[in-house]
Amino acid sequence: MRNLIRLFCVVLITMTVCLQSAEHYRFTYQLHGAANGHILLIIPYRAFYRSQASAIFQVCSQESEEREFVLDKIDQTGIMMRTTGFSGHTLVILTADKDFKLGIRNGRKLWRKWRQQLSYYPRFVRRVKDFQFRFHGPLRGGIRFRRTKGGIHSDRCYAMDVRFRHAPEELRIDFNLYRIMVEMIGLFNHAIRPPRHAFDIQSGSIISGLWSSPPLDFSQSINAIAALASRFVKGLKAFRQEKPFHLLYHLEPSLPGTIQICGTAEPRIAIWGRFRIQRFTRRVIMDAHSGRLLRDELQTLISKGSRGNMTVIARLEALAH
Fold this sequence. Notes:
With 321 residues, the chain is α+β, with helices and mostly antiparallel strands. The protein has helices at 2-18, 100-117, 177-185, 219-229, 231-234, and strands at residues 24-39, 43-62, 66-73, 78-84, 90-96, 127-135, 143-148, 153-158, 162-164, 199-202, 205-208, 211-212, 248-252, 258-265, 269-272, 275-287, 293-303, 308-318. The protein has a 16-stranded mixed sheet that branches. It has a two-stranded antiparallel ribbon with strand order 10-11.
């Protein structure tokens, strides 16, 4: 009874605070991973992983320096697709959706798209298995985080209840789509505000210069994401970035009425064995008049040549009023 009262109070407080703002954002991410080679020079192995999820957040508080984003609803099927075993002959598709049939259809649709896009891994798949997950309890408020005006995400919280369709039966495959989302939110860990000396005024026009981010180390975030994606990876050597790197920021041409800031780096820094961070990009678009965030997107590629790669794409995007 006390738990029910406590839950009701949390929902009531969340609703009361959020009524002050009708501003909504969509957060989406994609995580791709692939590896192939030979064990002991004889036994071939092939592994592929992909997960993607989307959620709508409402801005619930607008303090002077920070804004709180609270999960409002899940707007798309959450999908995880991966091969199992060393051979890559079996593919499992795990989905989360209130509509199980819709989830299966969307999972299979992604599988067909994957077969068309990739030439190597799909040709080894001989069996495809579908598994469904469901949401228990209210989704609203299940994820929340804060964002500063400079673009730093902090105070991330997770309280969702996502279970296997046939629970309490357990599925021995990790399905942590929305916990991964929380870690993806944490990748936005540095401010993108330019210093004053980054601009110059010539003949009445603003001339953009270059400025650097603070030193960036994503070891902790990549470790957390990899461990949630697969318990097998969790048992291997930890990801450890060889040294910090900087993003070099500049203004880019943009649509009228908007400002676009882009930060890029090609550090080629080792993070796990022969895997290296090859490329990292962050692109921010804001309204030029109000300063309102329109989009904040980052992408990174980690690879060891043709034998393996990991790609991360994460985006926070404003929805139309």
